[in-house]
């Protein structure tokens, strides 16, 4: 066999492999869908749109935010687990969808570990304890006294598992009695709080900020032990007579189970670069959030730890059904 013929045969044998590689689409090859479990106008919606804009710019494809609110994130999560694991469908999950729901919802319909690929944590989110300004209380101690003087008469709004558990922990620690009113999201609950149909609630800082400035809502304290850079004057509840009180929610980026390692790594690197930028940190601070990036391995361990933690949180709050 001549050298020329041998080279031709080798080249011919390699053609199927070259063709197969050429047929593998690069990521992303089309717009990316970012599914969220909160309604338009919510703080998480604003976070998702900021993140989507930055991801789209870095990836060279638009990122379209798709809102599927309701059922504490179950609807959105179930949507994502059936998507093709090619990186074109992502989920901005939270402590609700990936930790709390394990204990708060029967027949969840998905496994937060087995059915998802962790990409990166995105934020840590403390909440504010706020009251309608017409309620005759100006401090946490006065709220507790007022609630005990009117047992079962006060009501509060919940728009997600975070606001629900944070309020339940407050009730459990103080012994007050109040009625929960459930909403599909925080904006709807906030509307009723401002209108006076609710007395107090635990809420995202940005959602409530305009009404605090207008004097319609009064802030009593912060659920996290550390103060927010955007609201340094608001003291943690742990410093206001509720020793040991702590609640923080979080958000993170996930793909469906089976997301290839190279796509996972690429997305994680883009998210980490985005969150480490001064512009994103400043923007998230204005939303009342703390930018918190992590690689897929650390984020996966964090989610597992959160599932264990939420067993305690939900049971201490008297909410666990599983």
From TrEMBL:
Pfam families, alphabetized: TctC (PF03401)
InterPro entries: BUG, Bug_dom1
Family annotation (PANTHER family): BLR1237 PROTEIN, TRICARBOXYLATE-BINDING PROTEIN
The family this protein is said to belong to: Belongs to the UPF0065 (bug) family.
Name of this chain's protein: ABC transporter substrate-binding protein
Native species: Advenella kashmirensis W13003
Lineage: Bacteria, Pseudomonadati, Pseudomonadota, Betaproteobacteria, Burkholderiales
